[in-house]
From TrEMBL:
Protein's recorded name: YcjX family protein
Lineage: Bacteria, Pseudomonadati, Pseudomonadota, Alphaproteobacteria, Rhodobacterales
Domain of life: Bacteria
Amino acid sequence: MVLSTIADQIARSVEGVADTLAAPFSEPVIRLGVTGLSRAGKTVFITSLVANLMDRGRMPQLAAAANGAIRTAYLQPQPDDTVPRFAYEDHLARLTATDPRWPEGTNTISELRLSLRVQSSGLLSGLSGPRTVHIDIVDYPGEWLLDLGLLDQSYADWSAAALKRAAGRPSGDEYLALVAGVDPIAKLDEPDAQALAHSYTAHLRASREAGFSDCSPGRFLLPGDLAGSPVLTFAPLPGNSFPRGSLGRELERRFESYKRNIVRPFFKDHFAKIDRQIVLVDVLGAIHAGPAALDDLREAMARILGAFRPGRNAFLARIFQGRQVEKILFAATKADHLHHSQHPQLTAITEALLRDAKDRADFAGAKTAAMSIAALRTTVEQTVEHKEGPLDVVRGRLLENGKQAAFYPGKLPSDPSHLLAPAREGSENWLDADYSIMNFAPAPLTLRPGDGPPHIRLDKAAQFLLGDRL
């Protein structure tokens, strides 16, 4: 272990020196990480961002697009042959079909390289031709980032926190009842280990469906080809010490194996190489799910952003080797589900909700911002007459039946504390309001030449994340 750590440090030091020497003579590369929790819209965001960088008619707030500095954009083979390619063409075809459909969500890591030919606009721009800037977009599930906290925890510490969270959550009581009938110090019986893992996974899935965000370990929800393997066959148990050969000792060993073989390689091989990061958050969905889900989202995002503060963990300090994410954008998605008059409230709630997470990133030196976006606009705005006066609504095509419907989600408070305070206090319901959500299908598109798909503030997000490098 010591030798492998030393070798890893030496290899990274050599890579760092080589990158520094080669940088002035190579084409610049921006590695953009895109993450968020389930149903936050990562796949749609990447698809629309790439489409709108290739056809920039709807990108006026991206300075390099507005002033013509971006001459052309094109896709190239990605540099990492071991990572699946993001299926951009398939996703775009689904979104722009005659009967459009949402693409499948993110369940593993993928990558796409978009290259831009950019004409410099500085004092010496007339003396040089266009240069190529590569944008390597890395798509990965936000659930994987929740596993970061496991690196600092023992099995006993993780178990205590997980058992506490399970109480009162969907299927949590069923899991706790199963644990009550198991003796952790008894001799290992593999069917017992499998039953515990299956029950705990069912609890995590039910919690996610109910709107909770902190549902780790992340690979339990997105197992891929690891489904059924021993590294995913563990669960929390009470106790601090287990004898050799016992059920508790074996689950503890598998927990450590999960950290060593699953969590650490992801951070070492992928996460530590990211330059810019966008974190997509379904704030409206959490508000609809209730105070407990909203507070859980706040805590989950604070833990996720711990990944951008490597000083807190010796392992992360080693793999970063002086690198850090330069910019982090917190984006509340599905802004098209609200009339634009409520967008400032959604942004303010997002900033307040993510205050803990944002402060951690700011402490690490990264530049951060928060905004409300819709990577693909699915609605139009209307004002309808209501018994209490004019009401600002959005109208779109319903996912379940394809019919057009007007929607008003409720009035978001201008003071975010009106939501965050009851969430922190453990209230079961919102006292003076009821917030709704609607599942809209993508709207059929008729795009003019040179235009990408319609959006809300995608160009502003791109300017923050990429503008200074273009």
